[in-house]
Give the backbone structure.
Amino acid sequence: MAGTVKTNRSPSRQKSDRGSEESPFSRAVLISVALLFAFALLLLPLVNVFAQALAHGWRLYWRSLVNPHTLSAIRLTLLVALICVPLNALFGLTAAWAIAKFEFRGKALLTAVIDLPFAVSPVVTGLMFVILFGMQGFFGHWLDEHNVHIIFAVPGIVLATLFVTFPFVARELIPLMQTTGSEQEQAALTLGASGLKTFWHVTLPSVKWGLLYGIILCNARAIGEFGAVSVVSSKIAGQTETLPLRVEKLHLSATADSATAAFAVASLLAVLALLTLGLKTFLEWKTEREYERAQQMDPAAK
Amino acid sequence: MSIEIRNVSKHFGEVAAVDNVSFTVKEGELLALLGPSGGGKTTVLRMIAGLEVPTEGDLFIRGERVNDIPVQKRNIGFVFQSYALFKNMNVLKNIAFGLKIKKWKKKAIEERVRELIDLLGLDGLDKRYPHQLSGGQRQRVAIARALASKPTVLLLDEPFGAVDAKIRQDLRDWLVRLQEELKLTTLFVTHDQEEAMEVSNRIVIFSRGHLEQIATPREVYEQPANEFVARFIGVMNVLELVVDKGVGRCSELRFPAAGYADGERIRIGFRPFSVQLSPDLKQYPYQAVVRHTFFLGVMLRLELELPSGLVLRSRISKEDYANLALYDGRKVSLHIRNYRILSRENEPLGPELVVPENSSIFIAEGI
C-alpha cells in the first residue's frame, strides 16, 4: 500500500559497508528470495488484475467501466478525494508549521494525535463514527431531529476518509520544516515581508516537493480507502458506493460478467496506484534534495 | 547617536539572558558585541532588530523609540549566522527580495541590485542558487541582501563563524573596508576576542547577560574594567597571593602588599609582556626554566617553570628570543614589570602597579 510514511530518512543515506562482509553465495540467496517474494506477492497479483479484466476482451472491459453505477462510484470517489485532500493538505501545513516552528504546551500530544489514524484499524475508525453519529450514537438523535444524515450517507464517507488520510501531509512536512528551521522566515521579516508574504514566498516554496509528496499519498489513500468507508456507507449503488466498495460488490455478486467487471474497476484503482508510485518516486527524489539543501545551508549541521 | 539601549532586560522563562544592559552606538560606528556563548550578545542584537521583544527597558534607533515598531518597519539589515539565504531563489532574487516587498520600481530594483553585485564582487554569480555558492560567497550575498533597501543599521550575527580560518581573515579586512566606504552604523556579534579587537571601533563585552565593559579595543586591553574582561581579552597570568607582614606571596614570588591584613588573599594579574627575561641568572630576582616555546609567527609564547613548579606565560618577539639565545630547557632569570590587583570578578580593578627592577630587595627591606 502507498500509505507507509518514512519517519526517519537518515538510515537510507548512511553508507554501510556491511554488504561487503557477506559471502557472494549468501548475497545471491538473499537477493533472489527478496525478488521472488516481491514478484509472487506484489507484481503477480497486480498483473493478474489486468489479465482478468481484459480476459474477455476490450469491449466487455469498456462496458464494465461505463456502467452507470460504476460511473457514479467514480464520481463519488473523486468528490470525496476533492474534499479530503485539500482539507488535509491545509491541516497538514498548519500542524507541521506549528510543530516545527513553535514551542507550546501540548506539542507532544498534537504530534502523537496526528499519528492516531495510522495506529487505529480503519474498521474501528468507521465504528467510531457510527457510535458518534449513528442512530444509536451520541449525536444521532439530535442529528435525526434536524434531518442531518451523516452515517450511511456521503458526509459519513467524507468524515471517515478525512480521518484516515489525516496524517499524510503533516507527517511528511514536520521533519522537512524542522530541518529547514525558521531563519529564512526571519530573514524575510527583517527585509520587510509580512507573515503571509513570508509564508507564500519563502516557506511554501522551500517545502513544495514534500507537500506534493504528502498530497499524492493522501490522495491515493483517499481514493483507495475501503475499511472505514465500508462501515459508514450504506453501499447503495449510485448513491453511497465508492470505487473500492463497487469492486467488492461486483466481486461478491453472482451475475455472468460481474467477475470481469470487478477486475475492470479494480484495474482502474491499480492504474491509479501505479501512477502514484511513479509520482512518489519522483517526489521522493525531489524532497531528498530539499533535505540535503536544507542541511547544507545549515552550518550547525556540518 | 544612532542606537541607544536603555536598561534593557530579556528573560526567557526564569533565565535572564540579558540583564539591565545600557549602551549607545555612535553614527557610523563599527561595534563588536563580544562575549562567551550564552553571554546575551546575540539576544541584544536580535532585540535591536525586532526579532526578540525586550522584557524591560527601551530601545532607540536614531532617537526614535522602536520597542513597539515591528521588525518589518525598523529598516535594519540583518545578516544571520547561517546566512538564511532563500534557497529557492537565485542570487539576484535574494538581493531583490526586500526591494520587491517594498514595492520599488522595477528599474530602480535592477539598478540597486547591479550596484550591490558590483560592491560585493558577486559578478557572474547572479543566476546561481545558494547551494551552488561557497561559504564566503553566501555571506556576501546575505550582506548584499541586507544592504539592499539602504538600512540605517547593519546587524551581523557571528558573521565569520561559518567560514574557514583563511577566508575569515579576508572577510574581516573586507568588512572593515566596506564599513568605511558606506559609513553605515554596524554591529556584529562574535565570541572571538581577536576578531573583535581587529575589526571594531569599540567593543561591548558581555558575560552571563551583563555588560562588563564598553570601550575601544586598546582600552579594553590596557584598562580592563574587571577580572572577567582582563582574563577574556588576551592572555593573563593570574596569581593568588597570601599576605604576610605586608608582602603578598605566591610560591617564591613576592609582591608588595602594604595595607592588607595578614592572611588576606589577593588576586593579581599580569600580561605575558610584563614578564621580563634574561639569560643572566643574576640579573633578575627569580629563576626559571623555559619549559615550552610556542611559535605564533612574529611573536613567541613561552611557558616558564619556576623551581616551585609555578608556571608563568611570557611573550617575546622573535628577535629578542634570538638575542637572548633562548631554547627549551634553558635556565633564565625573570622579573615581573607591572601587574594589577584583581579583585573578585565584576568588581573594578585596581590601578596598574609598576615593580622596580630590584623589587626583591625592596620587598626584603620592606618587611
Q: What stands out?
A: Chain B touches chain A at residues 49-51, 71-73, 76-78, 80-88, 97-98, 101-102, 130-131, 135, 145-146, 148-149, 161-162 (CB under 8 Å). The CA atoms of residues 38 and 208 of chain B lie 6 Å apart. The first strand of chain B starts at residue 3 and ends at 12. Residues 359-367 of chain B have pLDDT under 50 and may be disordered.
